[in-house]
Specification:
Elements lengths: L1 H24 L4 H20 L6 H16 L1 H4 L9 E4 L2 E4 H14 L5 H14 L3 H18 L2 H20 L11 H8 L1 H20 L5 H20 L11 H12 L11
Antiparallel strand pairs: 1-2
Helix pairs in contact: 1-2, 1-10, 1-12, 2-12, 3-5, 3-6, 5-6, 5-7, 5-11, 5-12, 6-7, 6-8, 7-8, 7-11, 9-10, 10-11
């Protein structure tokens, strides 16, 4: 069990530590690296201390809570140019999709009855915000599920998510913030070797999720697809660079998701 927790921690730490090094070396505001470091520490505690939620009823309850978090910014704000995709938590503002979606797709993949409704509800929340990065993450989560299960319903969700993401991208782009969005692109323009290092750290995390974590293929492939979707969105447009850029939400979100792999499953289907 200790070994699986270490693998889960390494999966998160590789890109986050690479990102912290980039922030510190390339002149980001000093609090950026500090916030990411604190978020990594909290996420590591979650990975090591959180129990694996083994009952279907508990996972469904948490999935409902996570879906609620996705819709909550539409009520609470803040809104920028009509776009609401952030959760205000006192002095901290967290990106709702990056916080909720990683764990949500893991639980959706483990719920054969409600996999597609959960993902479609999340895509709808992203469409309303609108948030093309979350839409693309959910799309590739469904692609990962299809790759693992060959279930045609996952393919339908992926197609729906892709079309919805195109709509989101046409009306949901905001100006890029340095060291937050498009980190790989900006790093490549300043120091290509730094961009290569960040890219390799993300690739390492991606393949650790796919091949090193214990459990069934479906949740692992769904989570890997989520990371791919968020990362692709940050390369193609002005969206946050998950794990390597400034932002606590993706670090906490993937920490929550990885905590569910940090203990060997009771069943090979989990």
């Amino acid at each position: 069990m200790k070994g699986t927790r270490l693998i889960a921690s390494a999966t998160l730490a590789a890109p986050v530590l690479a990102g912290i090094a980039y922030l510190a070396i390339f002149g980001a505001p000093s609090n950026y690296a500090r916030v990411n470091g604190i978020a990594l520490g909290v996420a590591a505690l979650v990975v090591f201390l959180s129990p694996r939620l083994s009952t279907l009823e508990t996972r469904r309850l948490v999935a409902v809570i996570l879906l609620t978090l996705l819709f909550l910014p539409l009520i609470t704000g803040p809104a920028i140019s009509g776009i609401s995709r952030w959760l205000p938590l006192g002095p901290v503002v967290l990106h709702s999709g990056m916080l909720a979606v990683p764990l949500l797709v893991v639980f959706a993949a483990r719920d054969e009855r409600y996999t597609e409704p959960i993902l479609l509800a999340a895509i709808f929340a992203a469409l309303l915000q609108p948030d093309g990065a979350t839409g693309l993450a959910l799309t590739f989560a469904a692609v990962g599920l299809y790759n693992a299960t060959r279930d045609w319903k996952a393919g339908v969700v992926a197609g729906t998510g892709f079309i919805a993401s195109l709509v989101m991208w046409m009306r949901g782009e905001l100006p890029a913030q340095p060291f937050v969005e498009r980190v790989l692109v900006d790093a490549a323009m300043v120091e290509p070797l730094a961009a290569v290092g960040l890219f390799l750290a993300l690739i390492a995390s991606f393949f650790l999720i796919l091949h090193a974590l214990p459990g069934a293929k479906a949740p692992r492939h769904a989570l890997a697809g989520t990371l791919f979707g968020f990362s692709l969105a940050a390369v193609l447009s002005n969206y946050p660079s998950a794990l390597i850029g400034y932002g606590a939400a993706p670090i906490l979100g993937f920490g929550l998701a990885l905590s569910q792999f940090a203990k060997p499953p009771a069943s090979p289907h989990e």
